[in-house]
Design a protein that fits this description.
mainly alpha; 2 strands
């Protein structure tokens, strides 16, 4: 309202939230951040989701297949993929912290089984499930590139998927 960009207002909100947290005044913290008007992009629809899954399966890209299911089913972001660990999957829940608020994402039984099968197939028995070739936690840029390739192959606009992820 005062002419500030949403990003600037979010920065101020974040600073105020940090101060309130430090002072022990959590009741004054704001949960939601402002979204720029340009973020009103169309979301992925069911047909596009199924096309992405079919393409990933047809190309033999099991990692991308499971990641797409994970993003759409739970709403987890690419930045939080490292929290998808064997321990969390076995428990059936993933703890995230969007906007400094603890949130628990419950996994459906079907998704839980697919994640466990993916991990077993890749010899992952503890820690993060999604690993790079050298055994380290997969980086965000790597995940983005993988999803980008599936988008191109399936004809789904990438901005719809990266928004969902």
């Amino acid at each position: 309202m005062d002419g500030y960009a949403p990003q600037t207002a979010n920065l101020c909100i974040s600073a105020a939230n940090s101060l309130f947290r430090y002072l022990g005044l959590k009741e004054y913290q704001l949960d939601n951040q402002l979204r720029p008007k340009s973020e009103n992009l169309p979301e992925i629809n069911r047909l596009e989701y199924l096309r992405l899954l079919h393409t990933a399966r047809a190309l033999g890209r099991e990692c991308e297949y499971v990641l797409i299911k994970l993003f759409v089913s739970t709403g987890i972001t690419i930045l939080e993929v490292f929290k998808v660990t064997m321990e969390a999957v076995k428990a059936g829940r993933i703890e995230t912290q969007p906007s400094n608020n603890k949130q628990i994402l419950r996994l459906s039984h079907c998704l839980q089984q697919e994640l466990l099968n993916y991990a077993a197939h890749n010899n992952v028995y503890q820690g993060p499930i999604f690993l790079s070739r050298d055994g380290k936690t997969m980086e965000c840029s790597n995940i983005t590139q993988r999803i980008h390739r599936i988008c191109i192959a399936s004809g789904v606009p990438e901005e719809k998927v990266t928004r969902a992820a």
